[in-house]
Amino acid sequence: MTLSASLVAHVFDSSIELEQEGSILTLWLNRPDSRNAMSLNMVKAIQQVFQVIEQDLSIRAVILRGKGGHFCAGGDIKDMAQLRGEAMNLGSHQPYVDFNRQFGHMIQQVDQAPQTVVAVLEGAVLGGGFGLACVSDIAISLADAKFGLPETGLGVIPAQIAPFVVKRIGLTQARRLALLGSRFEGHTALKVGVVHEVVENEKALEVLLVETIQQIKRTAPQASRMTKALLHRTLNEPLTALLDDAAQQFAQAVGGEEGMEGTMAFIQKREPNWFDR
Question: Which Pfam families does the UniProt entry name for this protein (predicted)?
Fold first, then answer.
């Protein structure tokens, strides 16, 4: 598909692939031989994409998917081995710190992205991949996808993803899953709140993705961005001040171009003018 000029102007690592269809950008994790395990290059490439599109109002949604039948199997063990050598040479743990924190910056960037982020989950959804699923706005999954937080079984910790997992599924479930390190499938992921919908086969997954994209297109672009930002603020700001500011934003929205178009479309029983964008 044709990419926007802002994306064409940047060169991305081959560990990801981009496809754009109108206002919908699909970001494919593209290391199928390693079940799309996240290398440092992949992490940086994802950051680069989200940085480029942050102010791009023409891109309304980002679809996160994995090539080869897997979403993401977590961090790349080969990178860990290389870091071990660097740490030994330096006599310092700093290479581990820098690598781990880089992933944290990336997942925070995806979490705060103004676009609607949809995760399409199949195959391995483990460790860092599990964390990435937890910062999506909408997560849809195959029933036989394999979820888990395997870090403790490997002698490490889910350092950067832990806060996002807790926000997604709550502390009690996060404690159970992280401390047991157990694997589970799509219906359990739905039950604990990691995903929103589960289907039984790939054909149904594609149909559900199309339906999800159509629903995203029915929402007003600027109103969606403002709503996502407002929802994030509810976790961190005093309620009264937040509601005061939200009332001001509501007034601006009602009197703005989208608010007037949405009202007229409703009265005239037609789709709003942003639907085909």
Answer: ECH_1 (PF00378)
Please report the DSSP string for 37-91 in residue order.
-B-HHHHHHHHHHHHHHTT-TT--EEEEEEGGG-SB-SB-HHHHHHHHHHHHHHT
Closest C-alpha to 46, from 34, 38, 58: 38
Q: How far apart are CA 216 and CA 212, in angstroms?
A: 6
Residue 274 counted as domain residue: no
Same-domain status, 147 and 206: yes
Clarify whether residues 228 and 153 are in a common domain.
no
Write the pLDDT tens digit of every residue in 185-199.
999 999 999 999 999
Residues in the chain: 277
Structural domain for 145, as ranges? 3-215
> Is 272 contained in some domain?
no
pTM: 0.92
What DSSP element (H or E) covers 222? Answer: helix 221-233
Whole-angstrom distance, CA of residue 252 vs CA of residue 117: 25
